[in-house]
């Protein structure tokens, strides 16, 4: 097909013998791999014993995968609890016979809620530090991880944008989605918009952590992370197509936007609270 538009029609993944490594899965691997590396560096900077790194990685992985999957099903596909229950918790589907699907359908709001609770457990029972000390640092790696997840969505042609003027420099064609959205027309690459926003957030948080004393004001970095991350999500949602059967609405705001508002408010409250939660520099390790 000859066209002046940018066509996004990649291979599904990398063929490794009988196994296909999907690019979405590869992005998850990169997200956790780089997150592990960055958190190890943070622990060294703060003088924390690296024996606490392995349980941190384990609980973060559990919270992210389980929370993201449950969040997606609860907010976007609740019918799966009745129609295909095992697919809610396992990377398989029973529809049309048993087959492997991988973990598809993940919601960042659900992952965030689950991470809050798994990090509380990790903070009190394992590393024995103020949870906001951990939250401030986990926000840095989650920002970068979120960018990789959105790149994975881009590879899968998921979470595509609304139609855009064909003359726009952001006009992309996603032919893989023609069965769901009808004839292929130019759309916004909203996955890339979000990924760019999250990379900028990661750079900002890393700069503030390394070059300022904000990491001693427990909760400040985390509150800022919440505000900016969910603001990026909120505004990009205006350019997205609906995800599944969205049943949470307020006016013209969709499910993703409605769910983002409480997190932004929480971020502001956490930043205000952090003024009373400052540590002397000698007590940070």
CA-based shape: globular
| Count of DSSP-assigned helices | 10
- Please compute the radius of gyration using only Cα atoms: 20 Å
Give the H and E element order.
EEEHHHHEEHHEHHHH
* Strand-pairing-aware structural class: mainly alpha
Q: Could you give the count of β-strands?
A: 6
Strand percentage: 5-15%
Given as residue ranges, the uncertain stretches (5+ residues, pLDDT < 50) are: none
Q: Tell me the helix content.
A: 55-70%
Q: How many strands, what sense, and barrel or not for the largest sheet?
A: 2 strands, parallel
Q: Whole-number average pLDDT?
A: 83
Describe the structure.
It is a single chain. The protein has 285 residues and is mostly helical. It is 57% helix and 6% strand. The protein is built from ten helices and six strands. It has helices at residues 23-46, 53-75, 80-83, 86-89, 108-127, 131-155, 178-181, 190-211, 220-236, 255-274, and strands at residues 6-7, 13-16, 19-22, 92-93, 99-100, 172-173. The strands form three sheets. It has a two-stranded parallel sheet. Strands 2-3 form a two-stranded antiparallel sheet. It has a two-stranded antiparallel ribbon with strand order 4-5. A hairpin with a 5-residue loop joins strand 4 and strand 5 (99-100). Helix 1 packs antiparallel against helix 6 (131-155) and helix 6 (131-155) packs parallel to helix 9. The longest helix has 25 residues, at 131-155. The radius of gyration is 20 Å and the shape is globular. 37% of the residues are buried.
